[in-house]
Amino acid sequence: MKERMGKFRSGLLIAFVLILAVAAGVIAFLLSDTSGTHVALGPEYTYDIKQYAEIDPALILYRQVGETIETDFENTHAIAVDAEGRIYVAGDERIAVYSADGNVIKQIELGAEPTCLAIDGNGGMIVGLSDTIEMLDAPGVETARWKAPMPNALLTSIATDKNNIFAADAVNKVIWRFDRKGNVIGKVGEKDEKRNIPGIVIPSPYFDITMAPDGLLRVVNPGRHLIEAYTVQGDREWFWGKASVGIEGFSGCCNPINFALLPDGGFVTCEKGLVRVKVYDADGHFVGVVAGPDQLGWVEPLRVCETPEQCSSKGFDVAADSDGRIYILDMVRKNVRIFEKE
Amino acid sequence: MTNENPDNQSRRKFLRDGFWVAVLSALAAAAAAVLAKGRKKKYVWQLDPAKCIACGNCATHCVLNESAVKCVHAYAMCGYCDLCTGYFVPEPKALDTAAENQLCPTGAIKRTFVEDPYFEYTIDERLCIGCGKCVKGCSAFGNGSLFLQVRHDRCLNCNECAIAVACPTQAFKRVDADNPYLLKGK
Asked: How much is the pLDDT for B160?
């Protein structure tokens, strides 16, 4: 009898130990986190700027018109709009021209990856191909081509008027001024203390320029969070902008990355990091928001590294037409959205 | 008088020579095997910066009391920004080294003036705990020049790395011990 009781007790003990082991295993499994979302670090160790990223809906002054134009590009670099409202998207060694409703009108093969694009006054196009400028007529036939003066140039934006072609070189932190035959006739934005020019600061390869109807070149100085105005001779006339994650400022190390001019002289700006496209008046006063993450189809308000793809993501480019419609190219999703003032 | 058959003598010689060839071959093979074993590749744990999302698990899951994972800096990729988002809190009161303006909770990043408006940022590894807060700040707005790596002067090279188990993006992998770092900007 005693022997049987002893066997029974030892069996009970083994069962108890087994149950304990299984329970411990289940608890350990449930507590283990492999999602990365429940990190044991306190808030002081985590990076959170969601509070700054939220946009007051009352500040959103635009609404999307039409369907989002999904392009078939693998890489997109620039968007432009001509006087007839045709949309030009550059990437994948070509330019695709879309109608406002998203139909492809034509494709122009380039033979190299475009880095920037501008519509010429005569209906043609001027394309930057890293260190080369290529002029195309309206059907897309090359009419001129020349290299930037520096071999390591990276042309990120092109602007033009009747006599000049300006090309922003992000590596050399200067805007090259060419005549229409490709001869260098000047430089804009280079640091020059005698002329009170502080110089362009470009921490990442975003350097955008646009020629305004008043004859002054508008230039983004992203590392200084400024938009500046220069004469074609390179004199710095005025500037505006301030660094802030607040909605009225330019966030992060180096913003805005791209901008466009509105018919009233105002500015549309795009930022990287925080997903927001905003409008400023001609004097640089904040007017409102064109689109935030909701309007641009981003679930998260930030482009902080939530996934490895986002870590290497690029930003937006923007264009505006003569009616004040705003065209936003999402270089990550490779789509175009058109916004109109409400 | 010996009257051995020359065929027998030749056969014996053949067997004797064959024996020694076999012995020497076996010795050479054994030596080669020992040498090959000595040269067998060693592998260590490393964090792939292309997959890392700086979730913070590196700081808390390492078996060491202070993680073997540290922030490192790819200077070739750095913009040397005045407003470095890996160094400053999102809305700093001023762009200076005051503690209230610094993002790093342990003050492990040193800011040094280079020339207007550029600053250099260096990591003090004695203070870095590998939380990745600066990495997120840098990659959100900047060039992603700050990133995390397993430092092999600290790593115990556990058979099963506790951080690798917890890593949500499978960023931990075994790499050749002769090239133990996966550096950005190379």
From this structure: 93
The Cα–Cα gap between A38 and A333 comes to 28
Residue A306 pLDDT level (bands cut at 50, 70, 90): very low
Contact B50 A302 (CB under 8 A): no
Q: List the structure tokens of B116.
A: 């207007």
How many Å apart are CA A166 and CA A174, to the nearest integer? Answer: 10
Q: Does A305 have pLDDT greater than 50?
A: no
> Cis peptide leading into B117, omega within 30 of 0?
yes
Q: How far apart are CA B126 and CA B153, in angstroms?
A: 12
Q: Of the given ranges (A37-46, A88-97, A223-232), which has the lowest mean pLDDT? A: A37-46
| Helix and strand element counts for chain B (H, E) | 4, 6
How far does A272 lie from chain B, in Å, by closest CA?
6
Question: Do residues B123 and B112 make contact, with C-beta atoms less than 8 angstroms apart?
Answer: no
Q: Give the DSSP per-residue string, A202-269.
A: -SSS---EEE-TTSPEEEEEGGGTEEEEE-TT--EEEEE--B-SSTTSB-SSS---EEEE-TTS-EEE
Cβ <8 Å between A253 and B79: yes
Q: Of A202, A204, A273, which is closest to B140 when you measure between CB atoms?
A: A273
Terminal alpha carbon distance of chain B: 83
Q: What pLDDT shows up at residue A31?
A: 61
Give B29's contacts (C-beta < 8 A, 6+ positions apart): none
The nearest alpha carbon in chain B to A225 belongs to B83
Parse chain A into domains and list their residue ranges: 2-45
pLDDT band at B184 (very low <50, low <70, confident <90, very high): confident
Write out pLDDT tens, residues A149-203. 998 999 999 999 999 999 999 999 999 999 999 999 999 999 999 999 999 999 9
Residue A256 vs residue B3, higher pLDDT: A256
Indicate the SS3 state at residue A35: coil
Beta strands in A51-164 (DSSP E): 62-70, 78-81, 87-91, 94-98, 104-109, 116-119, 125-129, 132-136, 142-147, 155-160
CA-wise closest residue to B82 among B101, B100, B105, B63: B101
Location of structure tokens 């040269």: B39
